[in-house]
Design a protein that fits this description.
alpha/beta; Rossmann fold; 18% strand; 4-stranded parallel β-sheet; 225 residues
């Protein structure tokens, strides 16, 4: 019987690309259950903060996933990633945040870490995780958080992907010039770099989804057949 991974999304548009990645990384031995909750993003934007409502709803999704037989839960939204810290103790299965594996990898690649985001809440979440992780493993990190122009996030929400990607690429080129590694804080930003010549940037550019799914594979025992 295939194992089950529950993925919780706050933005519907990221689901197809993450499903495609999951199929390649995890293989048919892991079924995927996608939970899209627009209320989480709506409340986040309305209050510009992770409210108790968001914490409760994500914890509810994690508990439901466990009850349905999921072996793990992956939260694909960096902006509410801190919800994992409150939900995980209440279930018996692993609950993972999409940015954790990315941050761990970044700290092995250099001291100057650039973080690029299109929404400040995601930027704050990844910055805080990077700082705490570096401190926890005794590493010195110079972290530079950069927020793209506001039009980028508005374009993404409106489905204007080309405009979003162009702004992200412009910001990425600038940040790469004085970083050892650059993190894309949101999974929705990954498409912006798919056709870029990343080697020409001279620094690694990390995005959360693939690294997070590789960690899910480790957690599930390496199943990929």
């Amino acid at each position: 019987m295939a194992r089950l991974l529950a993925l919780v999304h706050t933005v519907r548009s990221v689901m197809p690309s993450i499903e495609s990645l999951a199929a390649g990384v995890l293989g048919p031995a892991v079924e995927r259950l996608h939970i899209v909750d627009d209320l989480l993003l709506h409340d986040l934007l309305a209050h510009h903060a992770i409210t108790p409502f968001v914490h409760r709803h994500f914890a509810h999704h994690a508990a439901e996933a466990e009850e349905l037989g999921a072996s793990a839960v992956l939260l694909t939204c960096s902006s509410i990633a801190p919800c994992v810290d409150t939900a995980a103790p209440a279930v018996r299965i692993p609950v993972l945040r999409i940015d954790e594996a990315m941050v761990d990898r970044a700290l092995t690649l250099g001291r100057r870490i650039g973080i690029l985001a299109t929404i400040d809440l995601a930027l704050d979440a990844v910055y805080d995780l990077t700082r705490r992780t570096a401190e926890g493993c005794g590493k010195t990190a110079e972290i530079e958080p950069v927020l793209c122009r506001a039009e980028a996030y508005a374009a993404m929400l409106a489905g204007r992907r080309e405009e979003h990607d162009r702004i992200v690429r412009e910001s990425l080129r600038q940040l790469a010039g004085h970083s050892d590694v650059v993190l894309l804080a949101q999974g929705s930003m990954a498409t912006a770099v798919e056709e870029m010549d990343l080697a020409a940037l001279g620094v690694p550019v990390l995005s959360g989804p693939r690294l997070a799914l590789e960690r899910v594979k480790e957690v599930m025992g390496g199943v990929a057949e």
